[in-house]
Amino acid sequence: MSIAAAAPRDYLLRPWTGTWARDAALVSGAVVLTALLAQVSLPVPGSPVPVTGQTLAVLLVGTTMGLRRGVVAMGAYLLLGAVGMPVFADGGSGAVALIGPTGGYLAGFLLAAAVMGRLAERGWDRSPLRMLGLGLLGQATVFAVGVPWLALSAGLGPAEAIAAGFTPFIVGGLIKGALAGMLLPSAWRLVRRETHVPNP
């Protein structure tokens, strides 16, 4: 039985699931993608949080793999990082990364994957405009966890935490949302042609 064999909703990679081996391969691929995009990292002056490609990976993983597999993939990614694999930004790893200033953003990946996966299962990733909205919602979910954690761990006030942990990432977030808005609907058109998946 697969991770989400009983899930009635549709999502992009569902035609390629169905066994534990396939699920494990998809989850492993999602972890590798997230780890690779995490290395696309740019420091932000005055902030302990870098701009990375991780959130784009979370958007893609959540929407293409559905809620359960998306959460499993992000959980596996965090677990590997926690036990010492250099999968976080700039090759970071260890439990300290999960409790430091960026820990809230990492934890937010789990919640964002769940939100993205559930809404994708309901068809939010089929059109560019709705996918843009879904991408922005997923990133907002990460920031909703990450910014308060940054404030607590770094001893920042609300305005300081927003200035250091949210404002510098607005433009990048819009770009990532736009990329997802273009990629996912196009991918759906390919899947429908190849597998004859009906339009919901």
From TrEMBL:
Bilayer disposition of the protein: Multi-pass membrane protein
Keywords from the UniProt entry: Cell membrane, Membrane, Transmembrane, Transmembrane helix, Transport
GO molecular function: biotin transmembrane transporter activity
Residues passing through the membrane, by range: 70-89, 95-117, 129-150, 162-184
RNA-binding recorded as keyword: no
Main location, first listed in the record: membrane
InterPro entries per record: BioY
Key word Membrane present: yes
GO annotations of cellular component type: plasma membrane
Pfam name, any one: BioY
Residue ranges that the Swiss-Prot or TrEMBL entry lists as coiled coil: none
Compartment(s): Cell membrane
UniProt similarity note: Belongs to the BioY family.
The protein's name: Biotin transporter
